[in-house]
Amino acid sequence: MAKSEVKLLGAWPSPFVMRARIALNIKAVEYEFLQETLEPKSQLLLQSNPVYKKIPVLIHADKPICESLVIVQYIDDVWTSGPSILPSDPYDRAIHRFWAAYLDDKFYPTLRSIRAAQGEEARKALLEQLAEGIALLEEAFGKCSQGKAFFGGDGIGFLDIAFGCFLGLLRATEKMGGVKLLDEAKTPGLVKWADRFCADGAVKGVMPETEKLIEFAKVFMAKMRGAPAK
Amino acid sequence: MANEVVLLDTWVSSFGMRVRIALAEKGIKYEYKEEDLRNKSDLLLKMNPVHKKIPVLIHNGKPVCESLIIVQYIDEVWNDSSPLLPADPYQRAQARFWADFIDAKVQSVTRRVWTTKGEEQEAAKKEYFETFKILEGELGDKPYFGGETFGFVDIALVTLYSWFYVYESFGNFSMEAEFPKIMTWVKRCMQKESVAKTLPDQKKVYGLVVDLRKKLGLD
Fold first, then answer.
1. ipTM of the predicted structure?
2. pTM of the model
3. What is the pLDDT of residues B129-163, one digit of tens each?
4. Strand ranges for chain A from DSSP E
5. Residues in contact with B10: Cβ distance below 8 Å, sequence separation at least 6, in sequence order
6. Does B96 touch chain A (CB under 8 A)?
7. Do A93 and B73 lie within an 8 Å CB cutoff?
8. Do A91 and B96 touch (CB under 8 A)?
9. N or C: which terminal CB in chain A sees fewer CB atoms within 10 Å?
10. Helix or strand run (H / E) with residue B161
């Protein structure tokens, strides 16, 4: 299939865009990465994702697919010759989907609020919430991996992708906040998993460097402070 | 192997109804357990420790949580008849996208329509209208959201029909007047036994909400 048949509209700092890139890499799909400027949003973005106007958008043979987890499942459904991303057993699939939904509905909103938190009390409360979530995910890792390297078993699977994309942000949050979120003592499984995930061939080229993310976060926070009061 | 299916649910939950419709579509026999959410059972707390919410499907002792995840699970396990998701990957992606939209946008705004007043309610109504306009656009002239056959997105949305009278009464508008295409689609879905037998009477739901509003101090 020609490279231009598959396009991904995205931006390097986005963990959601990373999910799509990892999935495409796992399937060894050649694609054209279109860097979206976001300010202002491109015509292509507005046309291909009129409902949310958000990245990532996968454009396959001119048909757009939106929402990162929908995109990852689509990639798994289409490119069946590559390694499977979703587990084969329906119950395991339900578990992976459950935790992916938890990550998007609860975990990520908490993680994202930390950098905008007003005051030490608020920040501490959010960090505690995050730590509780990480403890749950450590337990889930034990159950899902069954002693193997990843949530998906021997290879990276759906939940690895759904969670692993936030490692950059987690590390940036650790550095900026002087805290440890993934800890050898409390979350030994996840600490080892995180290293394996970041070292994986499908992930290496698309995981942003922590320092770059910190810079990006600082620019973002400065913009927010500079923004006129509503 | 014994196929034991238990559903922890409440009769009024539009999320729980989705699971009941899916089970009915597949002709699956199950044990229904009504939960009192003010006094959650040990079973519920054990089966859904993370969210402590219904619905929970317990299949041969193992819990599946989150209504849309449960519906997909049901479709994948009982895959010999009545497919709920399309076979084509692109159509499947569209189905997942719209079901997710219904959870992300529709479910969150509908609650605000009947629990808020004044400016807050006006804002909620505006969002509600925008959201249903988008849905009407997506439905177009198709018989169902999935096309020719009743499926995943239809299941995700139709359960709200039992709550329409609540939104109309407290929001002071008419779904038939504002969204005639949606109402035509609703009536088509209600012709299906799985839907008609699952959805509770609108007035019954309204009655519960009237009591709930008093408890919430809204009336």
1. 0.96
2. 0.95
3. 999 999 999 999 999 999 999 999 999 999 999 99
4. 6-10, 32-35, 57-60, 63-66
5. B16, B34, B35, B37, B54
6. yes
7. yes
8. no
9. C
10. none
Q: Which residue is listed with tokens 């084509």?
A: B88
Model pLDDT for residues A60-110, shown as the tens digit of each residue: 999 999 999 999 999 999 999 999 999 999 999 999 999 999 999 999 999
Q: In this structure, what token pair is assigned to residue A20?
A: 């799509």
Residue of A62, A95, A58 lying closest to A77 (CA atoms)? A58
Q: Do residues B151 and B144 touch, judged by C-beta distance below 8 A?
A: yes
* Residue A49 forms contact with B (CB below 8 Å): no
Assess contact for B162 and B195: CB atoms under 8 A. Answer: no
Give dist(CA B205, CA B219) in Å, integer: 17
Query: How far apart are the C-alpha atoms of A15 and A203, rounded to whole Å?
Result: 12
The pLDDT score that the predictor gives to residue A230 is 44
Tell me the two tokens of residue B10. Answer: 């409440």
pLDDT tens per residue, range B102-126: 999 998 899 999 999 999 999 999 9
Amino acid (1-letter code) at residue A225:
R
CA distance A200 to A226: 39
Q: Which of A51, A63, A70 is opposite residue B96, by nearest beta carbon?
A: A70
